[in-house]
Amino acid sequence: MNAKLRHVTAILVLIAAAGGRYLYWRAQTGSQLPDGVVAANGRIAAEQVELATKRAGRLSEGLIAAGDLVHLGDVVS
Fold it and tell me: Is the pLDDT of residue 25 over 80?
């Protein structure tokens, strides 16, 4: 094996060792976030629907609160 090939092989071994050490270190240190906080990648899809009535008026009772989920046929007044 010539000297140039030995140098390239040694450099690749050092890079692989450093990468393995870094991954081991990251696995051991864990998350730096406080308890109850989670970090993640992703996408949240939300749908908001505006509600309008045919007649103006006031509700007699508040059976639902803002943000509650309602389904077809639920009584909301």
Answer: yes
Tens-place pLDDT, residues 28-37: 776 677 788 8
∠ CA 4-10-11, nearest 5°, is 90
Three-state DSSP class for residue 60 = coil
Contacts of 30 (CB under 8 A, 6+ apart): none
Rg (the chain; Cα; Å): 30
What's the 3-state SS for 4-49?
HHHHHHHHHHHHHHHHHHHHHHHHHHCCCCCCCCCCCCCCCCCCCC
Dig out the tokens for 66 from the structure: 């803002």
